[in-house]
Amino acid sequence: MNWSKDDKRGPRGYHHGNLKEALVRAALELIAEKGPAGFTFAEAARWAGVSPAAPYRHFRDRDELLASVALRGFSEFETALSHAWDDGRPELFAAFDRLGKAYLDFARTEPAYYSAMFEAGISLTSNPELREAGDRAFAVLRAAAEKICARASGRTKPPTLMVALHIWAVSHGIASLFGRGDAARRTLPMSPEDLLEAEMLIYLRGLGVADVQSPASP
Amino acid sequence: MNWSKDDKRGPRGYHHGNLKEALVRAALELIAEKGPAGFTFAEAARWAGVSPAAPYRHFRDRDELLASVALRGFSEFETALSHAWDDGRPELFAAFDRLGKAYLDFARTEPAYYSAMFEAGISLTSNPELREAGDRAFAVLRAAAEKICARASGRTKPPTLMVALHIWAVSHGIASLFGRGDAARRTLPMSPEDLLEAEMLIYLRGLGVADVQSPASP
DNA sequence: GGACTCATGTAAACACTATTAACATGAACT
DNA sequence: AGTTCATGTTAATAGTGTTTACATGAGTCC
Predict the structure, then answer these.
(1) Cβ A166–B36 below 8 Å, yes or no?
(2) By CA distance, what is B210's nearest residue in A?
(3) A1 pLDDT tier (thresholds 50, 70, 90)
(4) Is there contact between B47 and strand D, defined as CB under 7 Å from any strand atom?
């Protein structure tokens, strides 16, 4: 007999082996299916093949599991954004456009993460770790805002932080209102991607950033 | 026959008299307290002083009560927005500024409505009445966008619908990320109102709308 | 090897929720 | 009066979050 963990069923007798990980993955599946509200601690346990009380060995309560999902979400979000941004290479505006598309793409393809991060109502003040993860993701937008601001032509440079917050708000607004399943979807005259791109072009133009073509005539 | 609802205690024997209304109000209280997820059908019934099964005479299920709250929310939202906008009087940009502040004010002072409307995940496709109520509120933003676009100086006028969607996305993004209790609040260098005003000024400038002062120098 | 410990699992219990079914009441209409 | 029907009740089912007491087994020290 071969009891190694590569067995079809694995050893998996009394101890699961990697329950914490399995629960996070189960939560992701379930949230993606039925929204963050429909996600159930008990069902996650069932999905992982353990008793309903087992998860409490790894998470204080249901909210802590949700927070754990959100934490990982912010981490993957940061990775996706910074990969798209790629430090503004090879060209600032192309990279900026990729950044916006990556934002929308994450919200669409990872609705479970996105819900946990922004809609589950987890308190950031009581969870510094989560806040820091969010800040790291936001730092990518901030870095992009920095390079954008450096190109502004006005007498005074716009404040980087403000611009970063603007970019975040627009992206989140579009992703949240139009970017996902038909839960809140309305019939749009254009794709969320085009909508975001147009808005950012107009905004950059208002900022006095050069090399941006007129948005009204594509 | 003066058992109108103005009676001191109302008849209130076996029949409540106005349970549907009472349930909606109870839901509002509860959502405001503990978020849309923490709201409970049973607790709403308790709050109204009836048995847990009574609400089912007025709402098919919990979601339908939530949808009812959202419906009323859109109606009040429309009222608030159109009152602030006041058809662009006495001056376009002052009215537009009021509109933005009214948006944020609604999200802050009526978080229960706002959550039910945008975060409860109620399907709009399966609820035409709700969708229409949302469209009526959006129509105010659209009307504002119309007048804004008419002032655009470029060769071609920007499409009204697109501009309206942009305004909506920005407002919702700021309200949703920074506009309410500390659930998702971050430390900001400025108030949500100032943040929104600045973003709209830059946007309008990018749109080529006249009479807008430079945003970078207040 | 054997005993001790501790993280990690189970089972049983409690209070609570959504929802339904069967029954009760009373307001309105003939 | 009596009937009807909307609107309430009670009782039951099934599923949930969470706690408590107990069980197991992997690693550690002798």
Answers:
(1) no
(2) A206
(3) very low
(4) no
